[in-house]
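User: Structure please.
Assistant: Input sequence and predicted structure:
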Amino acid sequence: MKLTDLITEKTIIPEFKSKNKTDIINELIDLFKDDPRVKNLEKVRETVLEREKIMSTGVGKNFAIPHGKTDAVNDVICAFGRSTEPIEYQSLDDQPVHIVFLIVGQDNQVSLHIKLLSRISRMMTNDDFRAKLIAAKSTPEILAIFKKEESEYIEL
């Protein structure tokens, strides 16, 4: 499994409307309103926001990865969004974010959840990759950038 098996043009926000952390997370979660993999959207929202209270998922390098595990989904869901404007996110490096990748998995898929978190974290350490995502002009271009970058990784 690859991240690009999980994100589609429908789960990419090329430019956030929101300008604060909670609203951005909600924008990403709202992409799954009619998704059959989601049993309870509000429980997904609660899970991700509760996880965010424990410690910011703004991991540094202008990137955040809000995530959670819950029985409110019957399969892993992922979404991506970005902002060309910096957004305050209480990141670990005290820098704003431009790129946000949401991952929500089932309670019983801990290994897959950790592997997905690790994959996206590794990809985001590539400065050139992050710069290309921020500079992308369209949703198809964002997806193509992900596919090209991830083609160099082995399957999870």
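The chain has one domain: 3-150.
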